[in-house]
Write a structure and sequence with these properties.
alpha/beta, two-stranded parallel ribbon, 4 helices, 7 strands, five-stranded mixed β-sheet, Transcription Regulator spoIIAA, 22% strand
Length: 120
């Protein structure tokens, strides 16, 4: 199991890896790079393929972090898995909408909704 500095990971009873972010603001390039590496390692090193990103604690996210989410989504799909995102604040969800990533990524309102969606 890898050591993470930017995320915490717990496993739901249904086998979903629930990822929570340590940083309230995801803005500087160094942090974003490290975050990307940690997210990618979930799939490539730890072999997780059912991942839920819970943004409940994130107050602000730079648009530069979106590339890391797109990359993670590609890696999860290549591993025959699924990625879901939940608990986005309105301001952050607006960025997903403006960039049309809400059409590419599976956004859910609550963690319970997202976990239930893995079972569909």
């Amino acid at each position: 199991m890898s050591t993470h500095r930017r995320i915490s990971v717990t496993d739901d009873v249904s086998g979903v890896s629930v990822v929570r972010f340590i940083d309230k603001k995801i803005v500087d390039s160094g942090s974003i790079e490290q975050l990307g590496e940690e997210l990618n390692s979930l799939v490539l090193v730890e072999k997780r393929n059912m991942i839920l990103l819970n943004f409940d604690s994130v107050e602000f996210m730079s648009s530069a972090a979106l590339n890391k989410l797109i990359s993670l989504n590609s890696k999860v799909k290549a591993a025959a898995g699924r990625l879901k995102i939940c608990c986005l604040r309105a301001e952050i969800k607006e960025v997903f909408t403006i960039t049309r990533l809400d059409r590419v990524l599976d956004l859910r309102k609550t963690e319970a909704d997202a976990i239930a969606a893995f079972k569909l």
